[in-house]
Amino acid sequence: MLVRDIYGDNSPFKELQGDILASSFAKMANDTKPGSLKERYSEDDVLNSLVTMISFNIGQLAYYSSALHNIKSIYFVGGYVRNNFLGM
Question: H/E element holding 38?
Fold first, then answer.
């Protein structure tokens, strides 16, 4: 779910652009339409949401851990960041 899904085009927070992620899997979790979720959401979309959620969580943990210990640079290496725009 994006910020625009919550506030529309009139967010009360000017710094929050509409295309910023607000919540992972929220659309799917709140989907009350009858029928199978597998029919409405592709496997690629679900996997993309999962990678995005994990990437954001890793980034937040790294950022706050570095702030706590006054570390100025964080490096991510390995297969996780290869071809992973969010991970990079």
Answer: helix 37-40
pTM, 2 dp = 0.70
Q: Give the DSSP per-residue string, 6-36.
A: HHTT--S-TT--TTSB--TTHHHHT---SS-
21 pairs with which residues across the strands?
2
2 beta partners? 21
Which SS3 state, helix, strand or coil, does residue 21 take?
A: strand
CA distance 12 to 35: 35
Which residues pair with residue 82 across a beta bridge? none
Render pLDDT for 23-38 as a digit per residue (tens, 0 to 9): 888 888 888 888 888 8
Instruction: Evaluate whether 28 touches 41 at the Cβ level (below 8 Å).
Output: yes
